[in-house]
Amino acid sequence: MGVLILNSLGGMGAGLKKLPSLSDRLKAVASLVCGQVVVDVGCDHAYLSIFLAMNGCRRVYATDVRNKPLSRAKINVAKYNLLDRIKLILTDGLCDVPRDVDDVIISGMGGKLIERIILKQDWLKDKDKNLILQPQSFLTQLRENLCLNGYEIENEVPVVEFNKTYCVVNARYCGQPRRLSLEESVVGKLAESDNAYSVEFLRRQYKKYSKILKGLYISNSNEEKIEKYERVCKILSKWK
Ligand SMILES: C[S@@+](CC[C@H](N)C(=O)[O-])C[C@H]1O[C@@H](n2cnc3c(N)ncnc32)[C@H](O)[C@@H]1O
């Protein structure tokens, strides 16, 4: 069962408490949840965890590696009377997280950290675990390494918010490691959609990589690197 975004109570959930307002980025993350038991890794303030618990999730494990955000999360969770359904766990990534989860959310962190957290846990090699990942960096590398390790990217949701763009990656284990082509790793699933946000996301990626390439020319970087970025820019130039 999926999570309802802004339920029929018009923003009022269980106990008629006002739902924490979520950014469009976190709403996109929430929209990809499909089960009833969820882990929210790096929960910070726990607004997403609270939102999910108030919108159909039976149990949420909200984890953070730092004490300070987790204490703040606990205060927020208590405010919504959800301490019985949101279990707060102080841990690194998915260590110490019960394995009965349907959905694994890791959002708002660097792509390399997300990759490390996932690849450390063999129990995620299970087609019933739905991964919802929102990297702040290294998106291309995350796509490549997920697929090289037998995960499949099923869907990607672009978000444009406050002049920033994000991409939420929805993946699960399929057991067939695959090396992505450069084009697949650079545009992911976004090229399959003509959604205005996908187009805008890819347009900005073109701008970003063109700027990097310019810097490489100026600094006389090595030929191989320049050639790779030229190929990336050529792929993305469809959206310039
Ligand atoms: C920028 S916040 C993102 C919060 C929220 N997930 C979001 O998307 O808005 C990153 C949070 O991840 C936590 N964090 C960083 N590394 C972590 C790790 N290895 N395991 C769990 N949490 C981590 C930080 O303490 C911080 O609270």
Write up what this structure looks like.
With 240 residues, this protein is α/β, with parallel strands linked by helices. It has 2 domains: 1-180, Rossmann fold (3-Layer(aba) Sandwich), CATH 3.40.50; 181-240. 38% of the residues lie in helices and 21% in strands. It has helices at 24-31, 47-53, 67-79, 111-119, 139-148, 182-187, 196-218, 223-236; strands at residues 37-41, 59-64, 86-90, 103-109, 130-135, 151-161, 164-173. The protein has a 7-stranded mixed sheet, sandwiched between helices. α4 (111-119) packs parallel to α5 (139-148) and α7 (196-218) runs antiparallel to α8. Mean pLDDT is 92; it is low at 4-16. Residues 26, 41-42, 44, 63-66, 69, 92-93, 107-109, 113 line the site of S-adenosylmethionine.
The small-molecule ligands in this entry are: S-adenosylmethionine
CATH superfamily of the largest domain: Vaccinia Virus protein VP39
How many domain units?
A: 2
CATH architectural category of the largest domain: 3-Layer(aba) Sandwich
CATH class type of the largest domain:
Alpha Beta
**CATH topology group of the largest domain:** Rossmann fold
Radius of gyration equals: 19 Å
Draw up the topology in text.
Layout: H1 24-31, E1 37-41, H2 47-53, E2 59-64, H3 67-79, E3 86-90, E4 103-109, H4 111-119, E5 130-135, H5 139-148, E6 151-161, E7 164-173, H6 182-187, H7 196-218, H8 223-236
Parallel strand pairs: 1-2, 1-4, 2-3, 4-5
Antiparallel strand pairs: 5-7, 6-7
Helix pairs in contact: 4-5, 7-8
Bound molecules: S-adenosylmethionine (SAM).
